[in-house]
Amino acid sequence: MKEEDSILKVKGVGEKIQKKYEKLGIYTVGDLLEHYPRNYDVYQPICSIRELVEGEVCAIEGVLDGTPKLHKVRNLQILNCNVTDGTATVKVTWFNMQFLMRSLHTGIRYIFRGKVSVKNGRLVMEQPEILSKEQFYNLLDKLQPIYPLTAGLTNKSVSKSIAAALKEIDLNGDYLPLDIRKKYDLIERKKALKAIHFPDNKEKMIDARRRIVFDEFFLFALALQQLKAKNETRQNKYVLAECAECQQLLESLPYKLTGAQMRAWEEVKKDVSGNRVMNRLIQGDVGSGKTIIAVLALLLNAKNGHQGAIMVPTEVLAKQHMESFCELLEPYGVKVELLIGSMTAKEKRVVYKKLKDHEVDIVIGTHALIQEKVEYDDLAMVITDEQHRFGVKQRENFAGKGEDVHILVMSATPIPRTLAIILYGDLDLSIIDELPGERLPIKNCVVNTGYRPSAYRFIEKQIKEGRQAYVICPMVEESESIEAENVMDYTEQLRANLPLKTNIEYLHGKMKAKEKNNIMERFAAGEIQVLVSTTVVEVGINVPNATVMMIENCERFGLAQLHQLRGRVGRGKYQSYCIFMTGHESKETKERMDIMGKTNDGFVIAEKDLKLRGPGDLFGIRQSGLLEFKMADVFQDASILKDAYEAAEEISKAEVLDMYKKYEGLQKKIKMYTSDLSL
C-alpha cells in the first residue's frame, strides 16, 4: 500500500465510510496518516472518591451501593447507581444505556472512568467507561489519540482505520537527507507517523511531533524559495509614474499620515516604479491605517491606466471598503465595482463584462475575484487584506489573473519580525508600527467570573449611551468534554440579564454564509446592540460604534488572537473597553493576561507570546491560525521554524531534485503552499 493510494485500500473502509472521510478532506492513505490527533487522552492512576475534582476526568474503583435504578424522562432512559470505595460515595449515571442493568451487580468491584460534575450539590460521574483491571492497567499512562471528527465517524473508527493503514503501508525510505536529520536531531518519518498516532509515552509523542512540524516548515520554506526565485526574474511590465491625484488625496484627508504610514507608501511607490515587480507585505497593527496605503496604491495604478483588485476575507468588509473607496476616489473619476459571492448571477455577469471591457478601474471583493469566470482587461495590481486568511496558494491564484502583476499583501496579525521574515520570505516587508494620533487607547481589565454581573451592568450602560458590544465565547454549543462558555447558551443568559428591548444575536462559523453576512450587516448598521460570537469576528468587520469587547474564557486563546479580537473595538471616536474574563486563575493565565492588561501594542504582545509558548505546551494546543499547517504552529514552534528555514537555505538544488525522485508525493505536498512548482 502506498500513500497516494485511495483510502478504499484501507481495511474496513468501504464506499460509505469513504464519503464520510472525504468530508474531512481525506481521500488517500497519506491524507489519513496526516489526519493527526488534535489532543490525547491520558489515563491517570485510580483515585479515591474523596479525591474527585469537579470538571476532571477521573478513574475510581469501587462497588455498587445498592441496585441500579432505571427511569425514563421523555425519550431518555436514565440509569443511576451509587458507587462507594470506603472513602465516600459518588452517583454514576448513564443515558440510553439500559443494557448495562444486566452486567452491573452488587458485591463486585468495578473500575469506572468518566468526567466528574456537581448536580444538586453532589458529585456525579456521567457516561463513564466500565473497565476490567487488565484493560485499565494496559491503558495506564498511555496517550490515547483524540481526532477531529465528522458525523458518522467515531474516534474509535478513525483510530482503527489509521492502525490498519500503518500496518499495511510501505514507509521505507525517508526523503529528508540523513545529514539534516542528524544535525537537527530528527527521528525517521516512518517512526514519527506511528508515534504521533500511537505513542508509547509523552517523550515519543514529542519527538514525533517535532519531526512532523519540521517537515511542514521545511517544505513550506522550499516552496517560498521557488516563489522568491521566480519573483526575482519578473521584470516590471507596469512601471507606474507618480501622479498629482495621490498628493491631492493625501492633502484632502482630515488627518495626517503617521511617519510609519508615509514610509510604507514611499516603499510601495519605489517598488512600482522600479525594474522588478512589486511583492510587498505591509504588516501593521489593528487600526494602524493600512487601508489608506491600499487606496493610494490602487489610485496610482488607475491613473497610470491599469486595473487593480483588492480581496478581503468577508463580504461585510468588502461592502464597507466599497463605500469608503467610492467616497475617497469619486473626485478623481476612478470607477470602482464590488464582486462578492452573494450577488445574483445577473449582477455578477454585469461586473464580469465591465472588467473585461475595462469599464472598471478597481474591483473590491472576496474569493469571488479569483473564480474562473473573472477576466480582466489590464490587471496590473492585486492586494490581499488579512494575508493569513487566504494563504500563499490563493494569493498566487489571484496574481495569476494578470501577467506579472504587482502584489501588495496586508496583515494585521502581529508576528515578531524574526518570524515574519521567514513566513513571508517571498515578500519585501514594510512595518507600520505607529497608531494614528486621534485614536483613543483601549482601556483593558482582566477579571474572573465573579465580575460578570458588573460587566453586564457596564454593557447595559454603554448601550444606553447608544454604543454596541461584542461578547466572545470559545465554543458554539455545550460540550461534554470542555468546560467553556458557548454562544447558544450565553445569548440566552444575556437576554435574561439585560433589558428586554436590547437586541442580542449570536454568530458562529457553523452558520450558513448568507446568515452570517445578514447578522454582521445588521450589527454594522446598529440594529443589533450585542453580538455574541465565536472568533469568526476576529477579522472582517469594522463597527466604529462598538465600544465593548468582552472575551469569556480568555485563557483558551493565544495572546495574538486576543489582540486581534480586541482590535474590533476602538475604531471610532468613542472611548473603548476590553474585558478579559478568565475561567481558570492559574499562574500561567495570570502571567499571560497581565500582558494583555498592560499593553495594546500588537508587536510587543507577539514577542511576549513567543517567549511564553514553549515546546511543552502540547496538550490543548492554541493554534495561531496562520497559514495552512496541519500540526505546526508558528508561535509555539518558532524554534523549529527557524531550524527548518536554515535547513532549506543550506540544501542544494541537486539534493532537492533527489528528494523529489525518492518520494513521489513531495511535489504534491509543496502544492499545499504554492501553485507554482517550476524549479
Category by helix and strand content: alpha/beta
Discrete helix count: 23
**Under the CATH scheme, which architecture of the domain at 236-432 would be assigned?**
3-Layer(aba) Sandwich
Task: Please state the overall shape, judged from the principal axes of the Cα atoms.
Answer: globular
Can you identify the CATH superfamily of the domain at 236-432?
P-loop containing nucleotide triphosphate hydrolases
* Average pLDDT over all residues: 86
Would you identify the regions where 5 or more consecutive residues have pLDDT less than 50? 479-483, 614-625, 675-679
- Terminal-residue CA separation: 29 Å
CATH class of the domain at 236-432: Alpha Beta
Largest sheet: 7 strands, parallel
Beta fraction of the residues? 15-25%
Explain how this protein is built:
- With 679 residues, this protein is of the alpha/beta class.
- Among the domains are: 44-140, Nucleic acid-binding proteins (OB fold (Dihydrolipoamide Acetyltransferase, E2P)); 236-432, Rossmann fold (3-Layer(aba) Sandwich), CATH 3.40.50; 443-599, P-loop containing nucleotide triphosphate hydrolases (Rossmann fold, 3-Layer(aba) Sandwich).
- The protein is built from 23 helices and 21 strands.
- The strands form 4 sheets. A 7-stranded parallel sheet has the order 11-12-10-13-14-9-15, sandwiched between helices. Strands 16-21-20-17-19-18 form a 6-stranded parallel sheet, sandwiched between helices. A 5-stranded mixed β-barrel has the order 2-4-5-7-6.
- The chain is globular and about 90 Å long.
- Mean pLDDT is 86; it is low at 479-483, 614-625 and 675-679.
